[in-house]
Write a structure and sequence with these properties.
Elements (H helix, E strand, L loop, with lengths): L19 H10 L6 H5 L1 E3 L6 E3 H9 L14 E4 L24 E4 L1 H4 L22 E2 L2 E2 L30 E6 L4 E6 L6 H9 L4 H27 L5 H18 L8 H7 L3 H7 L6 H18 L2
Antiparallel strand pairs: 1-2, 3-4, 5-6, 7-8
Helix pairs in contact: 6-7, 7-10
The structure holds zinc ion (ZN).
Zinc ion binds next to helix 4.
């Protein structure tokens, strides 16, 4: 998960249609009237006559086609950050009045969002849960009170991080999972706090993700460093060329952090936060005789771009 910039008040047209309040009033009486076509923004392209989905297209552009939670490229399922029909382990009937609310819609993959094993209808909070009545003004739904970063919703203090409101790098870091030889997420803000809870809610340390983080981000760096060591020990390159190869590798890593279309941006970003994190996730996976030299070069590169 990474911080995403979305203008929360500039909605796609299907989410700001004039009859929205009337539609939500009907949904208050019958949640089965929640219409997938509206929150996916289905429309017919006048020129091509092809059915398209404006909300999906807008979210895919903002999130670069990635899942809001695990940051893998995915077919876009529209996830309601606050569940629309029920909330597991509560008597609350779900935030049905947010079913067409732009700040409540995020794109996810199937695995992060599925019931049983993924987020499903989970939405634990620290404070008092908001009701439909809390979001009314003079008997009518107040759309300003439906925005995720406004009271009363923000005052619920949800455990699940919101990628458009919270900055995940303040709550999450990574560590090596030696059991599955992968990279695991770890909460930064304390036991059972928002970081840990977010990992738990969306199952962000599932085995497949541990391995993919390692294979997509860490493994290519390790391979190139090992290749440089091989060339040096076979005297195909001298020590200056060896340093150039390692610096080129680090340069690429720093550049890739800016390429938001890549998967696992938070991991790439975390790797360059400090030499100690790079050491724990990358250098530690090299052989003993390669660790000291690699770490020294990384610190030298790191200092050169921070001075
Ligand atoms: Zn996902």
């Amino acid at each position: 998960m990474r911080k995403v910039n979305k203008n929360l008040t500039q909605k796609p047209s299907s989410l700001s249609r004039p009859d929205l309040l009337d539609l939500l009033k009907k949904i208050e009486a019958d949640k089965n009237l929640i219409n997938t076509d509206i929150y996916r923004g289905k429309y017919k392209d006048e020129h091509t006559q092809i059915i398209r989905e404006e909300v999906v297209e807008a979210l895919e552009e903002i999130y670069h086609g990635k899942c809001a939670y695990c940051e893998q490229h995915t077919y876009t399922y529209i996830e309601h950050y606050r569940p629309k029909k029920r909330i597991i382990n509560t008597h609350h009937g779900g935030y049905f009045w947010l079913c067409y609310e732009w700040s409540n819609l995020v794109p996810t993959c199937h695995e992060c969002n599925k019931i049983g094993g993924g987020k499903g209808d989970k939405f634990p909070i620290k404070n008092k849960r908001s009701t439909y009545e809390d979001c009314l003004w003079e008997g009518k739904l107040d759309l300003q009170k439906c925005i995720a970063n406004q009271p009363p919703l923000i005052d619920e203090n949800p455990y699940l991080l919101h990628p458009e409101i919270d900055n995940p790098i303040d709550f999450l870091t990574f560590e090596i999972d030696s059991q599955y030889q992968g990279i695991a997420l770890k909460g930064l803000d304390g036991h059972n706090e928002r970081g840990e809870q977010t990992i738990e809610i969306c199952n962000l340390n599932r085995k497949e993700l541990l391995r993919k983080r390692q294979e997509s981000v860490i493994y290519p760096i390790l391979q190139n460093i090992k290749l440089a060591f091989g060339l040096l020990s076979n005297q195909k390159i001298n020590t200056t060329q060896f340093q150039d190869l390692l610096f080129a590798e680090f340069e690429q890593l720093f550049q890739q952090v800016k390429e938001l279309k890549l998967s696992f941006t938070l991991l790439r970003r975390t790797l360059i936060v400090s030499p100690s994190i790079f050491k724990s996730l990358v250098t530690a996976q090299l052989s003993d005789n390669q660790q000291e030299i690699t770490q020294a070069f990384f610190e030298s590169y790191f200092n050169s771009i921070h001075t």
